[in-house]
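Interim report, section 4.2 (structural modelling).
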Amino acid sequence: MRPEALVFMLITLGICGGGFLWALYHHGRSQDEGKN
Amino acid sequence: MKEKFKSKWGFILAGLGMAIGTGNIWRFPRVVSSNGGGAFVIPWLLSLFLWALPLIFLEYSLGKNLGMGVVGVFQEVLGKRKGFLGGFVAAVTAGIMFYYSVVTGWALFYTLSSLFSSGLFSNPEGFWKLFQRSPFPLVFHLLAIFSVGYIVSRGVSRGIERATTVMVPSLFLLLMLLALRVVFLPGGIKGLDFLFYPDFTKLSRPGVWIEALSQAAWSTGAGWGLVLTYSIYAPKREDGFASSAVLVFGDYTASLLAAIAVVGTIFSFTPSPERAGKILASGNVGLTFLWIPRLFSHLPLARFFSFLFFLSLFLAAISSLLSLMELEVRVFVDMGMNRKRATFLISAVAFVLGIPSALSLNFLNNQDWVWGLALLLNGFLFSILIWKLGGRFFIFARKVTSFSVGRYVHYVAKYVIPLEFAVLFLWWMTSSAKGKFWDPLRVYSPATVLFQWGAVIIILWLYFKFKEEN
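Predicted structure of the assembly:
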């Protein structure tokens, strides 16, 4: 695998997967803390 | 008693089921590979922030604050007579539901065939042709639409929530399994290289940017009115922006997993990138129903992996079909109809109006083109709401989230989305204006789009005008 492809794969998976986990965390936290 | 999602994660799982559909599994791998691989990711991610996320949050805040389906929301914000615009949003979703049920039926048929038929692997073309000429597309369309009707008729928590709580985690698990397996196949890494290697020269082509925006619009379900409908039943203690982000990022993650699985599998069994590119260019149906069984036939445990692939396609399709049905049901419930009666009526109408798509691929492709393009118009219609809402939107936003995102969503929905719609719409229309572009009977002509949209808008406008006058 070429290094550019590896870097782009990690960045893309990082942003999408990381964003997903970040949002799941905040979603769970908002319910635990009873926001809104 | 007002219906609500009961469990902590019920709304999120139903929303993910809505967002993740066939577009993630059969469209994204093809689009990303043919539009610059890693470089395509740049406009695709930008589209997340400049189309999908703000529209989904806008829908969420409207549904949760106003507690009505799409028609009710448009009437509440723009006035009773403008209900036809909300009616158009619902009609577009209905138009999609009619043929989406047929596709869901295909996925179910192929899931079962993976286990029980050997013709699927030895002669995929012959198998597909035989299937299309048989009564099975019709039978499985009937099965899909009435199963979904049954689930929706049971209500939000007893029907949709229970079903998606099983379907969506299973779908994610299957996609992860398929993606992981590909990494360990000989040649699988070549597929990942092809998928993610950035070809920046492609970014100079407007078509790549337009494909990225279209993918974001079609795949996430932003601007369809589906999140608006589900958010009516969202639990009280829930952060709307975090939920919107879960749906959008979850959809993008599922797309990436599907792309790794599909492109990796193709590269494992094809000698050259050119040949692999040709397979990827064979269209949604060609790639999924002709090539995937052929490629899987080379694998040990071919039946098992083919079963897993088509099962994930089926789960993605049916969990999206549930949300399409619920949107229509909610419109009728708002008009005073009983949920069970509304569901039966819509299922029956959807079955009848889906028959032409079950019998003719050309008709299905035409409907996909006409109503798929209308989703962009729907995004624009939602941005009209924000123009009318003005400062009221900030109050709505503050009520549903603790994140300070009101200004970002307001600005993007008010200025950027109309601009994106105008550019996309003009590009699609001009790029398809070839040959007999004025012929409404041609599958992909601009005339067929304008004719069908126009007919629906006129009927709805007359209906709402007549209803208000009497």
